[in-house]
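// run 5 | inverse folding | seed 20
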């Protein structure tokens, strides 16, 4: 996250989430095929296995109907996060947003 946006993010934080998903990359040959949502759900599954907790991310805001080059998206669009259960919290800067969710811890069969 750019330094200026980091200051805006920190100014609006009531408490720091223990988990952040800052960016991920999907090769151009696999974009628009559902890979991003699977990657995000996989990350959330790992967080659940590690004890869960709050998770924040910073998807790029893309105007409806406007196409943006994937090379400018360091994180996927808000819709992917919404599909994974995140909710919009606030904007930081012109094109960045803060989305947040809480992941429940997963108890493994051997711990039960």
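// decoded
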């Amino acid at each position: 996250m750019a330094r200026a946006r980091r200051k805006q993010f920190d100014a609006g934080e009531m408490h720091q989430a223990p988990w952040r998903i800052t960016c991920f990359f999907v090769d151009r040959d696999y974009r628009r095929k559902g890979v991003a949502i699977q990657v995000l759900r996989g990350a959330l599954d790992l967080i659940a296995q590690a004890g869960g907790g709050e998770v924040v991310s910073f998807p790029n805001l893309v105007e409806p109907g406007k196409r943006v080059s994937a090379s400018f998206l360091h994180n996927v669009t808000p819709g992917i996060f919404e599909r994974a259960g995140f909710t919009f919290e606030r904007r930081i800067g012109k094109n960045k947003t803060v989305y947040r969710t809480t992941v429940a811890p997963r108890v493994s069969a051997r711990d039960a």
